[in-house]
């Protein structure tokens, strides 16, 4: 039988709860103030760079349409960790301040030399430095995945982007040529140009697969965060997204070639753009199916083992 609490014990317990409440409120208020200072500092110091990042999302030559979703996704990831973040005691780090200063110099150098990728990456480094300087490296570690996701909102360096696009153009053209020939169609390829009876297909930069590749990598990062357990499996699916995106784009070219033989009007304008979005959706489904296949194999091995 439980012993009833004495009146003085109840009063002491209530006093402890009342005394803790203001302390928790003050801690939350301090955390909000620090967060506001960080956001204000970054907006003030990096506003031109942020405008450039925002503009790249709508540049038809950058193929970064998914960038609009990166920031909301990262914020949601951070918000979902709020219970864990509340348990981390703030421990300011001087190294975070140095990181902010160095990133500021890199950002200025990137603007002066017109190497905008460096200045945009410097913004992310400054964000990490601000979090470390205000809350400590434990907080940075806890927010590692959301912070890393923000890299996907930045267009790759121009020299890498152009080389990758050209390689994907030639690869997509070659795969399309081989597949169409296997289907019985007559195809003559010159670089990224496929000539068929009554139609000429040009595998442009937008059709090279770079757009679907960047979008699929972003979708893989989201899928890994919410549905995949284990770092090795997450890395495997992220890497698997590359050939899946390339294969999906090759299928797009094949379908375009076949349709062009019978319904040329279906491979132009809105129909062509719609086929591109369908390709991305199909590649995303391919990533999910790959994950389910790996889980099935692991389950079978554990059952046999």
Main features:
305 residues, mainly alpha, 3-stranded antiparallel sheet, 3 strands, 76% helix
In short:
The chain is mostly helical and 305 residues long. The protein has helices at 7-45, 47-57, 67-80, 82-86, 94-112, 116-135, 137-142, 144-149, 158-182, 210-227, 231-262, 269-304, and strands at residues 188-190, 193-196, 199-202. Helix 2 crosses helix 6.
State the end-to-end CA separation. Answer: 50 Å
Q: Sum up the overall morphology in one term.
A: globular
Structural class: mainly alpha
Overall average pLDDT = 80
Spatial strand arrangement across the major sheet: 1-2-3
β content, as a range? Answer: under 5%
Biggest sheet layout? 3 strands, antiparallel
Q: How many discrete domains? A: 2
C-alpha-based Rg, rounded:
26 Å
Number of helices: 12
Q: What proportion of the residues is helical, as a percent range?
A: over 70%
Q: What low-confidence regions span 5 or more consecutive residues with pLDDT below 50?
A: 14-21
- DSSP strand tally: 3
Spell out the helices and strands N to C: HHHHHHHHHEEEHHH
